[in-house]
Amino acid sequence: MAHIIVIGNEKGGSGKSTTSMHVAVALARMGHRVGAVDLDLRQRSFGRYVENRRAHVKRHGLDLPIPDYRPLPDLAPEDIPEGANPLDVQFSTVLSALEPECDFILIDCPGAHTRLSQLAHSLADTLITPMNDSFVDFDLLARTDPETGKVLGPSIYSEMVWAARQARGREGLKPIDWLVLRNRLGTQAMHNKRKVGAALTELSRRIGFRVAPGFSERVIFRELFPRGLTLLDLRDMGEQSFSLSNIAARQELRDLIATLDLPGVKVDF
């Protein structure tokens, strides 16, 4: 069965689509068959990212690996069982089509609590939660005392992940490997960054996730999206391949893939 990687965060602007695309392309470049699903039915940032890649590759006659992106299919009324939720059926249909053809399936969830997002989390073998590295986004994971910063308890999102874990346990499935990704880390170890790090470490022990550094804030990410490119494509394109910033960014991606410790994956880029 395909290993399902869910990118989940109920806040926007945390780098979910950038993370999804870079993980998907990295796996594809290492020879794995990668499927892609975007459950943000309004924004579709991940889906548009893959579509931009397809268009750029076709336009310039390039040979770049492309994740097998599938939108939720349109279904005729007679294809939906009586009493079933149409979105559930669409989602299960696309997963059933991808699973026998893929080693990994990347699912990008919307920045909001939706039925599809909840369902995707219950299917996750690996869950990646990108968050901006500040207390502004920390409440995605937990409630804190505004005076002391002490963790008071898990957030609604964390409780949803806990419920997904329980559902998997009842089905006899492996526990979700949950990785919280600290995106937009500052280049200096500022006092607030250390406080966020300490709070995440404390919370990780309480609700069971791993913490890893993600991607620093870089202009290059905004420039890559319209062409559907990733950091790993720059060398093939002959663009800025050896700038110090891009070398550092490639190392961040390499560290992320290694930290994920996915089955059958040996980092070789």
UniProtKB/TrEMBL annotation:
<dbReference type="Pfam" id="PF09140">
    <property type="entry name" value="MipZ"/>
</dbReference>
<dbReference type="InterPro" id="IPR027417">
    <property type="entry name" value="P-loop_NTPase"/>
</dbReference>
<protein>
    <submittedName>
        <fullName>Division plane positioning ATPase MipZ</fullName>
    </submittedName>
</protein>
<dbReference type="InterPro" id="IPR015223">
    <property type="entry name" value="MipZ"/>
</dbReference>
<dbReference type="InterPro" id="IPR050678">
    <property type="entry name" value="DNA_Partitioning_ATPase"/>
</dbReference>
